[in-house]
Amino acid sequence: MASIKKNNQSGKWDFVFDLGKHPFSGRRRQIRRRGFKTKRAAQEELSKLRAELLENEIINTTSIPFNKYMDEWLSERVHQLQKNTLNVHKIYYESVIKPRLGHFKLQELSPIHIQHFINQIVYELNYSEHTIHLIYRIVSGSLKRAKVLNLIKTNPAEGAIIPKIKYKEMKVWTLEEANYFVENARNIKRLTRCYIGFLVAILTGMRQGEILGLRWKDVDLDNQLIYIRQTLTQSGELKAGAKNKSSLRTIHIPNSLVKNLKEHRNLIRKEKLRLGKNYNDLDLVNCTQKGNPIIPRNFRKEFYNLVNKLELPIIRFHDLRHTHATILIQQNVNVKLISERLGHADITTTLNTYSHIIPSMQKEISDQLDNIINL
């Protein structure tokens, strides 16, 4: 819809072009142009504008280009995802999803289109199963949201067949190896200041970002509690909150960790006094000598160096979290409590992650039954 009128005040011609309501916000959209000397000049400019809008496929609720919808959906995700995660999603959208699905109208996408897309990236691109699952989740998540917005009746990504993830065997330390690390690391000359972070990982199962974002005000040494309220991203950015709602939790810590945290706190206090105004006081438990956040890759590098010096089996830093959970399961700690300690969304996540440990415990259960029930 458009209208051309003469402006009584200026004596020139103006027009208004109505684009209809925005399909996402519901707001009315109009384009105004003013100051044309003649009505014909206004009509010519209006015709050009219409042509440009058609070329750019201005969207409406019955015919939305998938690429236009995805741009809107990704801008919505800014407030839901961590910056690094959102950047990864954008990269896969621009390089993989948009070239193959972007030209479709949102309402045209069908299950066969999605399945063909998955088959393409499976056979044409050398991506791991994890990457294929991530790309599928991006597409499926966007279409799920489109269904909620009543832009489509069904999610065409539902029921798609994707390659199963081949899980690699989890590498963890035994209880003996974990104890060896804790007991012998202190004997290393010039022990890294990151050692306290490694202890926290072994004794709490906290994630790397949670450990590096931990503040002293979130540590209650008197009541032996740690509150997860802040994390450090891979890019070194401090962020309020945690990975998800279930990750915002309280963890009880043992006396041994309380003792080590008190010693480390004394070290931090001395560094503050020595540097004075030059100390960047972010209240971090794990920080550089000047109080700045420790870069995650440097933190992991210090861990691998220490493991090498102690001649222990090489595991990823994240595997300290798995080691913590595995040891607790082997000590017959209630899996529900372990799940809450790790900050898993539900107990199913814990059971699926550590299901390989359960069979090895069946013999212990059968032995206990022999002692409990007399036949």
How many angstroms does the end-to-end distance come to?
88 Å
| SS-based class | mainly alpha
According to DSSP, the number of beta strands is 8
Biggest beta sheet attributes: 3 strands, antiparallel
Give the SSE string. EEEHHHHHHHHEEEEEHHHHHH
Q: Roughly how many Å is the radius of gyration?
A: 29 Å
Could you tell me the mean pLDDT?
89
Q: Uncertain spans, ≥5 residues at pLDDT below 50?
A: none
Strand content: 5-15%
Strand order across the largest sheet: 1-2-3
Number of helices: 14
Shape: elongated
Features of the shown structure:
three-stranded antiparallel β-sheet, mainly alpha, 375 residues, 14 helices, 8 strands
What would your notes on this structure say?
- It is a single chain.
- A hairpin with a 6-residue loop joins strand 1 and strand 2.
- Helix 12 packs across helix 13.
- The chain has 375 residues and is mainly α.
- It is elongated and about 95 Å long.
Short recap of the structure:
By secondary structure, the protein is mostly helical. The chain contains 14 helices and eight strands.
List the helices and strands and how they pair.
Layout: E1 2-6, E2 13-21, E3 28-36, H1 39-55, H2 66-76, H3 83-101, H4 111-124, H5 129-148, H6 175-184, H7 195-204, H8 208-212, E4 219-220, E5 225-227, E6 230-232, E7 238-240, E8 250-252, H9 255-275, H10 296-310, H11 319-330, H12 335-342, H13 347-353, H14 358-372
Antiparallel strand pairs: 1-2, 2-3, 4-5, 5-8, 6-7
